[in-house]
Design a protein that fits this description.
alpha/beta; Rossmann fold; 2 domains; 13 strands; oxidoreductase; NAD(P)-bd_dom_sf; single chain
Length: about 325
């Protein structure tokens, strides 16, 4: 490996200022999606800062020297395509940066529902004094779907707040250090009715896409709330709307959607029991510096021909873990 690799930073229109720290260690090129096919020839690595972009698919034939792609997000479903999957190019992600912030977001939404804070804010806007009785979260049950680092951070946060947390993932097991019992996602309709909160923290894969459908939602407790910080495609959005209308579900907190931004015409906007945030659950003060720190750790390893961290299993679509 050359001591000074050439790295293309794919951005969405404004190159991030944090890249200045990377320029000390690499020859940097900047590219929007349209510019990428012209900038990627001769590049050793690609840093995908515009993580919603799918430009790499179009630029792929011009990537004549590429050996490493790094994503500034934990999810890489928009980056993986057949040619990349079958190639020798290493793909890494930003796993670890977003775990705790997303867990705090989930806890915040649980508390918002339990203490009816969303109604309080609406009443305050109308200067309306309306006393209400709220809920406790201690002793409530939560099912976290997705047992990777983000799911585990969520489990830890909710457990500390007094909830009883169970996991759901690829395979069932007992005595998990963070979840205790882990159920398989193949049988959600059999178990989902046991929980007050259902939290989605799984990556988007062929196995998880459309996981929460009409049948699963109908099996939920009518008092349950759904929280999605994973991917919008995990939920069949039309089925969710119908479940909320039919009161098969008491509410939903949604940070991700099938289509982003969420269209103005979506009925979700007008539902008083729905919390909507614009894909920001993991974005906290200083997060961009943390992303660059992680990339620099991998860049140093890359230059030394050492193993990179957060290598994605391109067949599965996420970083494999031993649990």
């Amino acid at each position: 490996m050359a001591n000074t690799p050439t790295i293309v930073v794919l951005h969405d229109g404004t190159p991030p200022a944090e890249m200045a720290r990377i320029a000390e260690h690499a020859n940097l090129r900047y590219a929007t999606g349209e510019q990428l096919p012209h900038q990627i020839p001769g590049a050793d690595a690609l840093f995908v800062w515009a993580f919603r972009s799918e430009a790499i698919t179009t630029a792929w034939p011009a990537a004549d020297k590429l050996t490493w792609i790094h994503s500034a997000s934990a999810g890489v479903d928009r980056l993986i395509f057949d040619e990349l999957r079958d190639s020798a190019v290493t793909l890494t992600n930003s796993r670890g940066v977003f775990d705790q912030p997303m867990a705090e977001y989930v806890l915040a939404t649980v508390l918002t529902f339990a203490k009816d804070l969303h109604t309080t804010l609406r009443l305050q806007d109308r200067r309306t004094w309306q006393h209400r009785v709220t809920e406790r979260i201690e002793g409530k049950t939560a099912l976290v779907i997705g047992t990777g680092p983000i799911g585990r951070a969520i489990a830890s946060q909710l457990t500390a707040a007094g909830l009883h947390v169970t996991g759901a993932g690829r395979r069932p097991r007992t005595d998990d250090p963070d979840f205790g019992d882990v159920h398989t996602t193949d049988h959600l309709t059999d178990i989902i009715g046991e929980f007050d909160y259902v939290v989605l923290a799984a990556p988007r894969t062929p196995q998880t896409e459309g996981l929460i459908n009409a049948d699963v939602l109908a099996a939920c407790r009518p008092t349950a709330r759904l929280i999605n910080v994973g991917r919008g495609e995990l939920v069949v959005q039309d089925d969710l709307v119908e479940a909320l209308r039919a009161e098969h579900l008491a509410g939903a907190a949604l940070d991700v959607f099938e289509s982003e931004p969420l269209p103005h015409t979506s009925p979700l906007w007008d539902m008083p029991n729905v919390l909507i945030s614009p894909h920001m659950s993991g974005d906290t003060t200083g997060w961009t510096d943390e992303l660059v720190d992680l990339f620099l750790t991998n860049l140093r390893a890359y230059v030394r021909n050492e193993e990179l961290v957060n290598i994605v299993d391109k067949q599965r679509g996420y970083v494999s873990t031993p649990v």
